Amino acid sequence: MPVFLSAQEPDFEDRFAALLAAKREADADVDEAAARILADVRARGVDALIELTERFDRLRLTPETLAFSEEEIDRAVARVPPEERAALELAAERIAAYHRRQLPRDESWTDRAGATLGWRWTPVDSAGLYVPGGLASYPSSVLMNAIPARVAGVRRLTMCAPTPDGQVNPLVLLAARLAGVDEVFRVGGAQAIGALTWGAGPIRPADKIVGPGNAWVAAAKRRVFGTVGIDMIAGPSEILIIADGAQNPDWIALDLLSQAEHDESAQAILITDDPAFARAAAAAVEARLATLERREIARASWRDFGAVIVARDLDHAAELSDRVAPEHLELCVADPDALAAKVRHAGAIFLGAWTPEAIGDYVGGPNHVLPTARSARFSSGLSVLDFMKRTTIARMSPGALAAIGPAARTLAQSESLEAHSLSVAARLEALNRGAEGEE
Amino acid sequence: MPVFLSAQEPDFEDRFAALLAAKREADADVDEAAARILADVRARGVDALIELTERFDRLRLTPETLAFSEEEIDRAVARVPPEERAALELAAERIAAYHRRQLPRDESWTDRAGATLGWRWTPVDSAGLYVPGGLASYPSSVLMNAIPARVAGVRRLTMCAPTPDGQVNPLVLLAARLAGVDEVFRVGGAQAIGALTWGAGPIRPADKIVGPGNAWVAAAKRRVFGTVGIDMIAGPSEILIIADGAQNPDWIALDLLSQAEHDESAQAILITDDPAFARAAAAAVEARLATLERREIARASWRDFGAVIVARDLDHAAELSDRVAPEHLELCVADPDALAAKVRHAGAIFLGAWTPEAIGDYVGGPNHVLPTARSARFSSGLSVLDFMKRTTIARMSPGALAAIGPAARTLAQSESLEAHSLSVAARLEALNRGAEGEE
């Protein structure tokens, strides 16, 4: 059974704090193993990559067969049923339309001192997209990771995905093609992260590596962070739903379960101001669990990490939600806009009963790569900005240097950086000589 | 002597590649030591903090004396000479004015399907600012780290700075006050990062930790990344100057040395299209090195990592610069705007001979916390956005759900996520029943 909490009970605060502190993922101690694999790929390049792929994926590759050929992709893509292709195309279109609006603007202005200031955004040259194999190999994730890179203007977009025993999901290849991925390699794990960082055979180094992965992939990304850019270290996923008593309990139950079915360490939390609705929704979850295909996983998640919380009122619900800082937040209440205005920390907000979170996973438009495990306190979902960087620009006129240069000299001297001070002073002296010459 | 390269020589490409690959920083193997300190602070809180501060900074504190009191700050600040105070105030004003322009806009729109989409930016609740002690304790860095946080709207801004043997730089405290820092603690090293991550005594946990530090601080930040947000892992700093033959060699020499004097692993590179200017600038560096206060440091940096490169022409210079992706780029040429348009990767660009890089360190306005060690390929300098996060928003009308829901169902089914599919289907069925009812 999930945790039931009521704000009426005296131990509410302690129990809510315990829920927040609960650890949802075992520490997989794979850091050393990931480090060894990275060092091996860095030192031996494509040879290491091929050996590791044989060991982990039972697949014997050569430098020539590391990449999917265009013909292989053509053949796989041709097997996708038209309905699935159409759905993927609609998703790709909507995701691209949303992300195009994220393209940032350059700025430039001249201030009163005569300094021209501003900044300019440019895309990274190349991005590497990691796609997990097996169960977690989602075509929707390919779209969500690749499209923002393409919209940003990334020149080369490389995808790595393990194909254990040679198995591949044709929809993943179709998604890669729709999203404009340039090359797809059949490698996974920490070895793929190493190849994308330092290059290995046909795999060239990327400037930025994004995409979800298992514990080895996460450990490898943490280690190469700084040599290349990375997106984030993804943890177990969560949904928080704030619902009033007027909602359909079955809809809310399905939304909770659509998180719980992802994996056993996923978390689904319902907060309501109506104790009767809390009971009805919990009962609806049990009813749906009886027949759900992935009921084993969903039941474990709901039992171990699920929570049903009766708050004092909807304002209190928003406060509690901010302490969770959920990845996904559904506001199924009469006035969701008013409630959303009170929320400060959430990866994505879904407003009203007609917006199940699953819409956001596929076709809504916003990105489904979102900050997990309370990191919405300080980070954002994946966006076009993750594939761009900003260069600041400054240009002093002689007058601007005369106006603000002396303060720079003073500060450089106070920091004992003489060359800094002299670099300004030499120019100021030239200006003074010029001014004297004019007199 | 620094490296001299000419594009005319047959081994140019190899030697330039070697320059790019040169390692400028010894691997300090402090990761385990940092991990032990973090674990200690996490487990024992303020007791560990006090013990570690006694051991590393030879300073015996209590939970009550960990923070500077307002009176202590008042007394320190009163000792700052008026000229330095005025310079710091001018810098703070200009930095704030520049960063206020970075405040992002929220967006919201309704598309043809009837989906209302958008996003909203909110500040992080709390930020921790690390300030190194000793030589690297720069008041300008306090302004550069704290002001963007304040402009973003961060509610609580906590600063940690070690005070070895009780020593403190009054200008650092004045900068903290001018920038609106809320509290200042006398702790440093990995232990300060632990305290800012999990809290320790009077130090409360922060959501985001920024600021430069030594190898222990960098290792600790890398380890807590994910539990809190961090800015970047700073490496040794560099400048690249592209200058034509019409420049003043002494000015360029001083600009090169203003990077070299920072520390022995700093890097200063001059690229010019004029061999005679290359020789003149190198001679000017030697002349200035004879008398520079920090000549020991600057000479070691220039000797070990300095480079003077004669490019085929200015376009070639821009190409080479992009391969370096320098932290600081000065364009001292007749038409710096035209050349800047050809540059893709740089942390900050300084245009024209009247804009020495030192202006950007203090009073220009743009941030001086910039991506080092080639990371301008994928990352940006510190900005207001580092202290904010974006929540995506989606709201479906019933019509929008009817239009795009079926595609979401199809994709959920193809990913074998039944609850996802059912959460959409249950609502679509209600819509269909409604439509039938109307018939």
TrEMBL record, chains A, B:
GO MF annotations, alphabetized: histidinol dehydrogenase activity; NAD binding; zinc ion binding
SUPFAM superfamilies attached to this UniProt entry: ALDH-like (SSF53720)
Cofactor field: Zn(2+)
CDD domains documented for this protein: Histidinol_dh (cd06572)
Gene Ontology CC terms, in alphabetical order: cytosol
Catalytic activity, EC: 1.1.1.23
Residues reported in the UniProt entry to bind Zn(2+): Q259, H262, D361, H420
Entry annotation: catalytic residues: E327, H328
Keywords from the named record: Amino-acid biosynthesis, Histidine biosynthesis, Metal-binding, NAD, Oxidoreductase, Zinc
Main EC class the enzyme belongs to: oxidoreductase
Binding site for substrate: S237, Q259, H262, H328, D361, E415, H420
InterPro entries given in the database record: Ald_DH/histidinol_DH, Histidinol_DH_CS, Histidinol_DH_monofunct, Hstdl_DH
Protein family membership: Belongs to the histidinol dehydrogenase family.
Functional summary from the UniProt entry: Catalyzes the sequential NAD-dependent oxidations of L-histidinol to L-histidinaldehyde and then to L-histidine.
Name recorded for this polypeptide: Histidinol dehydrogenase
Organism: Oceanicella actignis
Taxonomic lineage: Bacteria, Pseudomonadati, Pseudomonadota, Alphaproteobacteria, Rhodobacterales
Name of the gene encoding the protein in the UniProt record: hisD
